[in-house]
Here is the input.
Amino acid sequence: MPIEVQTVVDLPTYQQFMLFHLGGKKRTNRRVTLFVWIGLLATAVLAICTINPQTRFVGLPALIVVALCTALVIFFAYYCPKISYKKSLASLTRNTYRFHADGFDATALGAKGESTTTHLFSSLRAAYEKDLVFYLYLDGSQAFILPKKDFISGTPAQLRSLLLQSMQDRFHLYCD
Here is the structure.
């Protein structure tokens, strides 16, 4: 049975991809990691402010730095993906992926018509499986996003098996 996935990437799926992509593709929760770094930075600022006994309003500079860091994390974690999603064609394109033994065909149907490209597994940089999605990376910045809920034929287990067989050490399984 052939494996086929037909999807239109929605904003929550795209946001999860951006967090995964920016988080270094590790198993840890990206949001928790970001807030840990904020806590470490805030602690460092407080330590620096308390070292100098001449500093007045010790809490105010630290509070400002923590507020700015928190705003930056919220911006990068939540608003950057929204802005990027709205500027991209992801929301306007229906993608169909048909897998075969040595690669897959990706067909995009958007405002400019339909286009099909063929990709060999050997040309992919890496592939990742998470609980709800597969990410197939062409290079360090471009990836195909395949939600498991969008499989038309075949199963995620069949795709996992095909990727393990074809990509070996470039396939990473991050499911719980």
